[in-house]
Amino acid sequence: MTFSRRKTLALVGGGVILAATASLGTIATRKTRTAGLPWTVAGQGEDARHRALSYALLAPNPHNRQPWLVDLRSPGEVMLYVDTARLLPHTDPFSRQITIGLGCFLELLRMAASHDGQRVTITPFPEGHDDNALDARPVARAVFSADPSVTPDPLFAHVMQRRSNKEPYDTARPLPDDTLARLAVAQHGLFGGTIAEDEVARWRSFSREALRIEIETPHTYRESVDLFRIGRDEVDANPDGIDFGGPLFEVMAATGLFTREAALDTTSQAYKAGLDAVYANTDTAMGHVWLVTPGNSRPDQIAAGADWLRVNLAATGAGVAFQPLSQALQEYPEMAELYADLHARLAPGGGTVQMLARIGYGPEVAPSPRWPLEAKILDA
Ligand SMILES: Cc1cc2nc3c(=O)[nH]c(=O)nc-3n(C[C@H](O)[C@H](O)[C@H](O)COP(=O)(O)O)c2cc1C
Questions:
Q1: Measured from the CA of 165, which atom of ligand 1 is nearest?
Q2: How far is CA 6 from CA 104, 123, 184, 211, in A?
Q3: Which of 55, 57, 63 to mutate to test ligand 1, by most ligand atoms within 8 A of the CB atom?
Q4: Per-residue pLDDT tens for 85-110?
Q5: Under DSSP, is residue 50 helix (H, G, I), strand (E, B) or coil?
Q6: In this structure, are 74 and 185 located in the same domain?
Q7: At 290, is the secondary structure helix, strand, or coil?
């Protein structure tokens, strides 16, 4: 669930904000100090693993939890683990989305290394896995070997511009007919999509309803609100979760107009503004894309992550904004009806819908916060 900054400004009474901005002067203009640094140092590092990891940590991942931990003690090898303190037990009860995010991380690692003359051989779950829960066993073993014949992956060119664009899209700009063909770069799962007006209209209301259910279900909504990082200091202190940075939220945080408590209060202006803001996103989709896998094992989810990163990068290359809409794909009781409906639509012959996203033309957005690599190296 994500708030669009622009829309929230309008809804919470621009007037109040502007007045407060004037009086709070410098607070309003504060930029994060450290949360964006990993984007500026990507590609640096003493060895090929560090250089590739500095890109891998820029991967898309649910709720920006960044649940990756790496062990680098064996030369030429990265052992990837999941940080089980960074799961999403309410919105992602089987850690399917977390595993997809780890798949995005591994694919970006492989891509970055391919531009550094390194071939990476990835073995998912070398000590086995449990399809119901992630645990302390390694998620993957990645072995690096210098190989001048490795083919640099062209999609890597878009890594620094790749975003999950959580702003309203331009409904006056239809997507060109070749958009889906340009995004069809999945190598494992079944990629699909539509830009047909009538189908998009149906997906808009479907995804809006799924968001309503997630927000109106206290345990899933609470999981998101607990991850709100409001204002620069909170974003720098925890460069993960759902970040609210920039002048608007600095002032709203400073004036108490926007807090986690206010967001949880369903009678508050902040709550109403938040609802409208997320609906402004679903309601301005100009197309939808999805990914279906025949199976739903952990290796399937890792492969779905690799595919998803590729689709996100291809969208970036095509100048198309992209935002996952995972609500209806989530496996908790309150969402069961929409989950079944979604699978009847996209996987009538069986299979699991692993990802769904809206596409269109959106405003430019800043890179999202990240923890630095040092914070993710075990026994560094
Ligand atoms: C498996 C998965 C599920 C996601 N689900 C959502 C979602 O439902 N809504 C959303 O706005 N973003 C979703 N995202 C995007 C993340 O929120 C985003 O990757 C993260 O905040 C980092 O931002 P960035 O992609 O712009 O770097 C998802 C990403 C992944 C990999």
A1: 26
A2: 29, 43, 31, 19
A3: 63
A4: 999 999 999 999 999 999 999 999 99
A5: helix
A6: no
A7: strand
Query: Is the entire prediction scored with pTM above 0.90?
Result: yes
Q: Are residues 165 and 152 both part of a single domain?
A: no
Q: Atom of ligand 1 at shortest distance to CA of 1? A: 9
Q: Name the strand (E) or helix (H) holding 144.
A: strand 140-146
Q: What is the mean pLDDT of residues 229-253?
A: 92
Close Cβ partners of 183 (under 8 Å, ≥ 6 residues apart): 191, 193, 289, 311, 314, 315, 318, 320, 359
Tell me, in angstroms, the distance from the centre of ligand 1 to residue 330's CA. 14
Quick count: other Cβ atoms within 10 Å of Cβ 146?
A: 12
**Mean pLDDT over each residue of the chain, to the nearest integer:** 93
Q: Residue 31: pLDDT band by 50, 70, 90 thresholds?
A: confident
Q: What is the CATH number of the domain that holds 262?
A: 3.40.109.10
Structural domain of 214: 5-23+161-360
Secondary structure of residue 230 in the 3-state scheme: strand
- Using the atom order of ligand 1, give the atom closest to the CA of residue 97: 1
Q: Confirm or reject: Cβ of 368 under 6 Å from ligand 1.
A: yes
Question: Percentage of the chain surpassing pLDDT 90?
Answer: 87
In a domain, 139, yes or no: yes
Split into its structural domains, the chain has a count of 2
**Å from CA of 101 to ligand 1 middle:** 9
Please state whether 186 falls in left (phi above 0), alpha (psi between -120 and 50) or beta. Answer: beta
